[in-house]
Amino acid sequence: MIYLGYALAIFTLSIQTVQCTGPREMTWSNKSFGPDGPWQAVNVIVGSNSSDLMQPTSAVALYPGGSWESKILLSTLCDNTTLSPICYADKAGLFDSDKSVTLDNNSIQLPPYGSWDDLDWGYTKAVPVYARARRATDWINIQGTPIPEVDLILIRAGWQTYPNGRAYPLEVGTLSLGSPELNQTFGASIKINTTFINSYLYDQGGVHSIPSYSYGMHIGSASLGIPGSLHMGGYDQSRVIGDVSSQSYNSGSFPIELFDMSLGVAEGGSAWSYPNKTGLLGHGNSSMTSGLTVIVDPTNPYIYLPQSSCDAIAAELPVTYQPDYGLYFWDTSDPQYKKIVTSPSYLAFKFSKNSLNNEYITIKVPFALLNLTLEAPLVETPTPYFPCMATNSTPVLGRAFLQAAFIGVNWLHSGKWFLAQAPGPDASFIVNTATMDENNPSVSGSSSSWEDTWKRQWVVLPKPSTITTNGTDLNTDTTPNIGLSTIAKIGIIVGSVVGGALVLALICGCWIRRRRRQRQDPTDEDSHTILDDRNMDKRQSQLLEAPVNEWKQINELDPDLQRYEMASGQCEIYELGPEKKPIFELDHKGTSHFGPFELPERSSMSRPGMV
Ligand SMILES: *[C@@H]1O[C@H](CO)[C@@H](O)[C@H](O)[C@H]1NC(C)=O
Ligand SMILES: *[C@@H]1O[C@H](CO)[C@@H](O)[C@H](O)[C@H]1NC(C)=O
Ligand SMILES: *[C@@H]1O[C@H](CO)[C@@H](O)[C@H](O)[C@H]1NC(C)=O
Ligand SMILES: *[C@@H]1O[C@H](CO)[C@@H](O)[C@H](O)[C@H]1NC(C)=O
Ligand SMILES: *[C@@H]1O[C@H](CO)[C@@H](O)[C@H](O)[C@H]1NC(C)=O
Ligand SMILES: *[C@@H]1O[C@H](CO)[C@@H](O)[C@H](O)[C@H]1NC(C)=O
Ligand SMILES: *[C@@H]1O[C@H](CO)[C@@H](O)[C@H](O)[C@H]1NC(C)=O
Ligand SMILES: *[C@@H]1O[C@H](CO)[C@@H](O)[C@H](O)[C@H]1NC(C)=O
Ligand SMILES: *[C@@H]1O[C@H](CO)[C@@H](O)[C@H](O)[C@H]1NC(C)=O
Ligand SMILES: *[C@@H]1O[C@H](CO)[C@@H](O)[C@H](O)[C@H]1NC(C)=O
Fold first, then answer.
1. What segment(s) does the record annotate as region Disordered (predicted)?
2. Rounded CA separation 171/73 (Å)
3. Which backbone phi and psi does 392 adopt, to 5 degrees?
């Protein structure tokens, strides 16, 4: 009975966490998706089977990003078994619209109307989508917060066509993160207002409201264990490294001037015969020597550039062009392949900073992130590929690029979107939530070193000068340091568990103190607890650094298990964030309700159970 009490208390607490105003963090799926990833996606629930109780119907994972309509795949998508006998879209989940009583697929009189037609999917048409789709609105539920009348395009049937002319099934829908308008309004006489998840939370959110109509996102990497990060009304400052460029958006798109692309090495020796190579964007195409406007778009998977640019990069890599796909396959038998994708080699994108012609921001995408995998149904066996797609269509930097970049936008007032370097797999991933202020929107980066967030992943190549005349390679950095990385991560997990209990105890202490005095500025208490948590982590990871080989073995035995452990550890960290908030909720939400549960005891008892 006592345990039930504790469980109830925790349950109530976690409900309360959802109710605090402030930036809102989205939950990512613990699965990853293909067929050209692995990519990460966020979890939402579409539709509801009872308008009173808002019983959610279909849990689906969607690629977040893009603007205006969200594109939702219906459960009829896999009815066409000629296209594929296997329903690949089942992995992310399909929307069973028959079960939803809140669906409105009749009111909006604007194409597409449900007959076969081309369908825009992101800003490039390099891989056109042909589909039977229809406009609609329905509820979307994010972590217990229902959002009504979300602007949707429902896809009943459809496929995407690769350059070889073959049709391949669609697998994952997209979740729009707003538009320059609060609502998309349809109809001449009778106006139908459709919402977006972040515009609704900002404008009509009430107790769930977010501070601005904005978001900040780093999609991370499933294969390298960089968790996804998406905040609405704010961003995670630890996902922003160094300079931030802000520039105007255009309708719903994020254009930016790309001046050049280059190859480089962050530390140690080079995999090539030169330390760096610039001029790859305009190589062999004089019309691009002064730059090219590209659109950054998380709903498209690849990096879409004119053939000459992709070819110029590919000429420096052990890859072969595959005209069937418009992509390049890595030649895994070439020793240069392993050298490039495991060393600190990167592809750098030099952009105009703040829309200026004489200021630059460079985003470095390590080749470790550009070793992506094509899977069935695109290919029969998993094939590592280099994600540059040669196209005459709109040049787009898609998810392949965004694995290494932070993007954000503030839709109202200033109308700016933000671009910055994002961290690598050795970052701490302790969420450091920052608010995007609606009147003075800006994103400020953390001062962490980008190289440090990759150090343990990289196998540094010897510098030519360190190979001495007597033939001994003096460079000690040539051995992979993967074990350390694991330790750091385990350190974070253990640290956060121990730290979590401590922090909770602290918070509860604070709460009790707070009950005695008047409510005060919440922010400084928050920063204290975050600091405490970090110090714990550092100490813990130092403690754990000794038995390198043991951890290495564990890692080698079951890398997947490792990844999941890490993921749950991170959830733990994320939970700390919101849990700090309800304290203030509790304060003014009637203490009698919560009175019976003695907070400090509850926290120490229930913590292990939650892990
Ligand atoms: C993913 O999450 C679901 C529930 O959210 C859980 O049932 C499942 O076991 C998790 N899978 C892995 C591999 O962690
Ligand atoms: C709604 O869905 C829930 C769970 O998915 C189910 O238990 C309930 O019976 C459904 N209600 C209706 C009216 O279909
Ligand atoms: C099923 O998919 C195939 C392959 O794309 C297509 O040719 C066919 O017309 C589709 N059938 C239906 C009923 O949509
Ligand atoms: C609207 O959705 C319902 C339920 O899925 C479906 O039966 C109906 O055919 C749809 N109507 C149109 C016009 O697409
Ligand atoms: C849509 O919003 C406008 C205000 O922007 C309002 O005048 C109109 O009545 C709304 N329409 C509906 C159907 O709620
Ligand atoms: C947006 O749509 C919602 C839901 O229909 C409505 O309540 C709200 O007034 C609309 N806001 C604007 C600015 O049109
Ligand atoms: C590129 O290499 C040259 C030497 O070839 C070096 O002088 C220059 O600093 C390098 N640039 C960068 C950005 O590393
Ligand atoms: C050269 O670049 C322009 C864009 O600036 C592009 O339209 C054209 O197709 C490119 N030519 C080749 C041969 O790639
Ligand atoms: C490239 O990626 C694949 C799939 O994630 C992985 O198995 C392989 O080890 C990677 N290659 C190298 C050299 O790291
Ligand atoms: C190689 O040279 C380094 C110094 O240049 C020296 O320390 C080392 O002992 C030498 N090794 C052999 C095997 O001669």
1. 517-538
2. 8
3. -90, -10
CB distance 147 to 141 below 8 Å: yes
Which value, in Å, is the radius of gyration of the alpha carbons in the chain?
A: 25
Closest CA to 496 of 442, 535, 441, 522: 535
> What 8-state DSSP symbol labels residue 299?
T
**Residue having the nearest C-alpha atom to atom 8 of ligand 5:** 191
Q: Please give the Cα distance from 84 to 167 (Å, whole number).
A: 10
Phi, psi torsion values for 115, nearest 5 degrees: -95, 165
Domain 23-213 indexed as CATH 1.10.940.10 = no
What are the extents of the domains in the chain? 23-213, 229-459, 482-610
Contacts of 221 (CB under 8 A, 6+ apart): 40, 369, 403, 425
470 lines ligand 10 (CB under 6 A): yes
> Is any atom of ligand 6 closer than 6 Å to the C-beta of 195?
yes
Q: Residues 5-27: pLDDT tens digits?
A: 444 444 434 443 444 689 999 99
Whether ligand 4 lies within 6 angstroms of the CB of 339 is answered as: no
pLDDT band at 190 (very low <50, low <70, confident <90, very high): confident
- Do 265 and 275 contact (CB within 8 A), yes or no? yes
Strand 113-119 with 129-142, pairing:
antiparallel
Question: Other CB atoms closer than 10 Å to residue 290's CB: what's the count?
Answer: 11
Q: Encoding tokens for residue 219?
A: 């999609």
Collapse the DSSP code of 431 into the 3-class scheme (helix H, G, I; strand E, B; otherwise coil) and give the result.
Answer: coil
Torsion angle of C-alpha atoms 178, 183, 186, 188, degrees rounded to 10: -150
Residue 167, pLDDT score:
96
| Nearest-angstrom CA–CA distance, 134 and 153 | 5
Helix (H) or strand (E) holding 255: strand 254-265
Say if residue 596's pLDDT is above 80. Answer: no
Would you say the CATH fold of 229-459 matches that of 23-213? yes
Residue 292 CA, closest ligand 8 atom number: 5
CA of 295 to the centre of ligand 5 (A): 32
> What class is the 229-459 domain?
mainly beta
Calculate the CA dihedral of residues 482, 487, 493, 495 and round it to 10 degrees: -150
pLDDT digits (tens, 9 = 90+) for 119-156: 999 999 999 999 999 999 999 999 889 999 999 999 99
Residue 322: in which H helix or E strand, if any? strand 319-322
608 prior amide bond cis, ω within 30: no
Backbone angles phi, psi at 150, to 5 degrees: -75, 140
Percent of the chain with pLDDT over 70: 72
DSSP annotation of 370 reads G
Bridge pairing between strands 229-232 and 234-236: unpaired
